[in-house]
User: Fold this.
Amino acid sequence: MKKIINGIIVVEGKSDVEFLSSYIDAEFVITNGSALDKNTIEYLKTTKQDIYVLTDPDFPGKKIRDELSKSISNLKHVFIKKENSIKNGKIGVAEGNIKEILEAFEQVYVEKDKNSGTLTMSDLHDLGLIGQPDSSNKRAMVCDKLHLGFCNAKTFLKRLNNNEVTKEELKNYVR
Assistant:
């Protein structure tokens, strides 16, 4: 039985739709890679449905997410791990793991218009999440636990504050 997603799932290509539609029932919008056109963005801006962004876990996928985030508020980001999305040398959603993708839809990251958290770069430094040789690995571990997708320090801080993660909670994730 297919999982029903009440909303629009934004993906990069036809192969993503073919793969996902075999086990997910939803409306799909294809960006055709990073070539987002105005009509697609306008359609997504005017819809009343939830918009789930599920792009490839690579640089072009991040670029598409960033472009959509500039134009549309309250997007729901669905992140999958790069290491579980590689087949035959290709990285992408269509190469992903069905179980992981379904679990990712249970752990969406909602980007809010305004951050309401209180974490600072100093907090990240105090916890070894920036400025240390292993900071990138620690951030990746926390991103995995919180389903934030891999990100640099600035984006990491934004996503933590967006989710109102406290310094105490962050300490527990780092342990």
The beta strands are 3-11, 24-30, 51-53, 76-77, 86-87, 90-91, 109-110. The mean pLDDT is 91. The chain is about 40% helix and 15% strand. Helices lie at 14-20, 38-46, 59-71, 98-104, 121-126, 135-146, 153-162, 167-174.
